Amino acid sequence: MIAVSTMALGGAGAVQAQSRQFNVPAQPAGTGVPAFARQADLQILASTDAVAGQRTSAVQGVYSVNQGLNQLLQGSNLVVASNNGRTAVLSSAMHAQQTIAQGSDVEDQADEVETIVVTGFRASLGSALAAKRRANGVVDVIKAEDMADFPDANLAESIQRVPGVSIARDAGEGRQITVRGLGPQFTRVRINGVEGQSTASGTDSSGGANRNRAFDFNVFASELFNSITVRKTASAETEEGSLGATVDLQTGRPFDYSGANLVLSGQYGYNDLSQEWDPRFAALASNTWMDGRLGALVSVAYTKRRLLEEGHGSGGWLNGTEAGGYNPASPFADARRADVYSPRFPRYGRLTHDQERLGLTGSLQFRPQEQTLINLDLLYSDFKATRQENWLEALSFARNASQGGRPEIIVRDGVVDANGDMVYGLFDDVDVETETRYDELETKYTQGTLSVEHDFSDRFRVKALVGYSKSDFDNPIQTTVILNRENSDNYSYDYRGNRNAPLISFGYDVTDPLAYNFGAARSEIRLRPQGVTNTIKTAQFDAGYDLTPSLTLKGGLNYKEYEFDSWALARVNEGVVPQLPAGVTLASLTELVSGFGRNLDAPAGSITSWIAPNLSAFADLFDIYSGTGLFELSGASNSNARGNIRSVTEKDSAAYLQLDFNTEIGGMPIRGDVGVRYVKTEQSSTGYQLVAGAAQQATVDRDYDDVLPALNITAEVTPDVLVRFGAAKVMTRPNLGSVTPGGSLSTVGVFSVSSGNPYLDPIRATTYDLSAEWYFAPEALLSVGLFYKDIDSYIQTSRISQPFNESGLPLDLLDGLGVSPTDVFLFSQPVNTEGGPLKGVEVSYQQPFSFLPGPFDNLGAIFNVTLVDSEISYISSRSATGFVDNDLIGLSKTAYNATLYYEDDRFSARVSAAYRDRYLTAVPSGTSTNDIDGVRDIVTVDASASYALNDRIKVTFEGLNLTDAFNEQYTDSRRDSIYVYSHTGRQYNFGVRYTF
Question: What is the pTM of this model?
Answer without folding.
Answer: 0.86
